[in-house]
Amino acid sequence: MLTDCQRLAWGFGRHAQQNLFVLLKVRPKAAPTALVLLNILFDMPSPKVRGPFLVCPKTGRIVGFKSASLVLRWIFPVVGFLALVWYLLRVVPKPSRATYPCQKVVAPIAWGFIGYVLSFFVAVAAFRKARRYVWQSRYVLATACGLFAIIVALIGHKSASQDAGAFTPSDPPNTPMGVARGINPGRVVWVYAPEATPWNGSSGYWWDDNGTSQPVVDQMQSRSLRSLTGATNDVAAWDALFRQFNQTHGRGNVGYQSGEKIAVKINLNNSGGYSEADNQLDASPHQVLSLLRQLVYQAQVPQAMITVYDAVRPLPDKVYNKCHAEFPNVIFVDSTGTNGRIAAQWTTTITYAVSNWPDGSPCGTSIPTCTLQATYLINMSLLKGHNSAGVTLTAKNHYGSINGREHWYINVSNRTMPLYNPLVDLVGHKDLGGKTLLFMIDGLYGANDVNNPPSRFQLPPFRNRWSSSLFVSQDPVAIDSVGLDFLNSEFGSQGFMAKSDNYLHEAALANNPPSGSYYAPNGDGVRLSSLGVHEHWNDATHRQYTRNLGTGNGIELVPVVIPPTNFLMDGIVDNTGWEIANNNGMKIWAAVNGSNLYVATWSPGTNGPSDHFIIVADQLLPTASQPAFPAWHKAGMNAVSTNKPFLGGESIKDYVGWQQTTATCKAVKFSTNAGQMEGTLNLIEAFGQMPATLYIVAAPYATADGGALVSSSQVPGGNGNGNIESNEFLAVPVSAIRDENLDGVFDILDPTRDFVGRITPTVSNCVITWPSVPTHSYQVLFTGNLAEQFQPLSGSLTATQGQFSIIYTDTTAAAASQRFYKIKSLP
Questions:
Q1: What does the pLDDT read at residue 593?
Q2: Is 788 exposed, middle or buried (0-12, 13-18, 19+ CB in 10 A)?
Q3: What is the DSSP letter of 172?
Q4: Hey, which residues does 191 pair with through a beta bridge?
Q5: Could you please report the per-residue DSSP string of 753-787?
Q6: pTM of the predicted protein model
C-alpha cells in the first residue's frame, strides 16, 4: 500500500504523463492507449475517475486529479516546488534539520518534484527527437529514442516513489501467527549498550580493541541470558536453557551432561582470507570470545567439546587469534583447514522439499559433521540487510552450514509472495535449527546491506550511533521478526526490505504455510510444525508486541539498557534529555556526573560559516568588559575573566578543544553540523572546588578573523549588541543537572533518586513546588482518595529558559477534606 508521500509522488508521475501527451501532440483518441502503455511500463494500475479525482482501483485511495481541471492540474508541480523550496531553506543552513519529522515528510515530495521535472524535460526531448526520425523514415532511431524516453520517465517515476519510507508488511501490526517457543514463550531480549562500540568510524577497525569494548560485551551477554531465562545469575541461566531444551527434546529434566558437544555457527560471509583486514561486517571477535567465556566459565562446558565454525568461509585471524589465545582447546572449523583450523567435513543428511531450482543453482545436500555430532547448537548471526534476500539474520546464517546455496527462492526483491523458502527447511532441520539451544543476533554493529561496512542507526535511542545491540531468544522466528523490524525501520526506505518477512510467515505456519509448500526437510516425510511465532511491532517508536501490550500470545520484546560508565565522546549528544536551553535551533546540552561536567552544542563542522564556543564559568563580571576570545581574533566583549575555561571548535578545520584551563578535559566534534561538539571538564580541577552554580553560554562567531557574534543564535538569546553580557549567561544549579547513573534522566527528575516535591498549604489553597528542567513539560494530577484514580488538575506546564523549578497553586484545594498529588513528566 502506498504512503501519502508515495501517492503524491505517483501523482507527479501521472501529471508528467498527461503533459507529455499535450506537448507531443498526441491525439485525444490515442491518449488512453498511450497511457495504458505507460501504466504497464511504470507498474501503475490505471486509475478510475471519480468526480475531480483519480482513484486507484486496487486500494480505493485518491492518487491524483482529473486532468480536465486546469487548477487541479497545477497542484502537483506547485506543491512539489514549494516543498523543494521549503526543504532547501530549512536544511541547507542546518543539515541536521533533515532528521526533523516535518522535513522527512517534505523530502520525498521535493525529490518527487525534481524527478518529475528532470524526467519530464528529458523524456519530452527524446520523444520529439523520435517524432523527427519518424518524419525522416528513420524508424530504428525513432524506436531507440522512444524507448529511451520511456525509460527516463520510468526512472523519474521510480525515483520519486520508492524512497518514501520503510516497506509496509502484508500482515498488520500485532497480529501474531504461529506458536511461541521458549522458557518464556516468544521472548526476545534486546540489550543496548552504547559504550560497547567506541569506534570513531574512520580510523582503525570496528572489530579491534579500540572499536569494541570487551568488558561491555561480556556484560551484555550476561544480562541477556539472565533476562531471557529469568535467572539471577549466569550459571543458573545456562542450566535453565539446557533443561528446557532437553525437556522439549524428550531427554527429561536434565542439564548439560559430560561429553555433549556444542557447535557455534558464526557468520563469516564477507571473510576473504585469514589476514584480511577491512571494515566489512563479519562475526565480532569480542562477541565470539564472550560467548566462549560464558560456555566454559559459566555453563562448565569443556573447551574440547566446543566447535566454532563457518563451513564455507575462512575463519579470519581477527576471530581465531583472540579466541584461541584464551581457549586453545576449542575447535575451529572453516572452509580451508589450515593455520590451526580444521577443514569442514560434509555428510549427506539433509534433504529439501524442493530440489530442482529454476535457475540451475545447486542447493546444499550436506551439512558439516560438527553439526551432526553436536548435541546442541548456538546460532550467532549478524544484524544486516540484504539487497536481494531482504535481511540476513539467524535463518540465513545457516547458508554457511550447507555445501551449496540456492538464491532463486530467497530473492524476495522480484518474487511474487507467498513462495516456498529454503530457509524454513534450515530452521526446521533436526541437525540445524532443531538442535539450536540459543539464537543470537550480534548487533554491536549493523549494516544496511550484506557487503557494506557498519551503518549508523538513526532512530532513538541510537540517534546516529552504532546499533550497539545484542538480541537473544529461544524462538528462531521471533528473533528474526524483531531483527527485521529493526532493520526495516532503519533501512527499509532503501527499497530492499519489502517482502523479506515471507520466510517468517512460512516458518511460523510451517504446518500449513501460505505458499502451500510441504516442508519436510528431515527425510522422513513428516511435515514440520510451527517453528515459532511471528508478528510485527506496533511502531518503530514504542516497539511493542502483543505480549508487551497484553493483547495476545505473540512476541515479548524485553529491552535492557546498559548505561555508559563515562560520558561518550563521539560527536553525538549523549542524551537528548540533557537539553537545558535552545535559541533559533542552537542548543545547549549539559550534565554533571561526579566532578565531571558534560556540555554540548551543534558542531561547527569542517566547512561551516561559524566557529562555535561554549563558555563555562563559576562567576561572572558585572559587565561585558573582556575581549571575546582574543586568541581566535573575534569581535566583541564577554562578561567573564580570561581565566575561565571555554570549549572552542573551528568550522574550516578539524580543531576542537578546551582552552584557558589545565583541568582534565576531553573534546570532540562531529565532522558536519548534523552532529554535536561536546566536551567534558573536571569542575574541581577547573575552579578549585565544586561550584554550586555554573554560568554557561553557547555562542557562534563568524569564521573569519574579526568575526562577530551571531547574536541570533547565541544560547541563551542576547540583546543583539555583539557582546555576551552577564545577564546573557544561563545560571545552572549543579544539583539540577546531575545524572549519576548516566541514564539520560537528571537525578532531580528521577523519583527513585533525588526528585522531591513540596506542598505548602495555605488557608485557601495549596502551593506545589518541584524541580524542573528547561524545555521539559509537566502535569499535576490529584485524587481525594488513594483507592481512586488520579485525575488531571493542571494542563501542560513547561519550564522556560533558565527555569529549574515550577510553582503551581491549587486554588480548589480548600473545598476538599484531603488531597493527594502526583507530578507527571510529559513526553
A1: 96
A2: exposed
A3: P
A4: 470, 560
A5: TT---EEEE-SS-EEEEEE--TT-EEEEEEES-TT
A6: 0.75
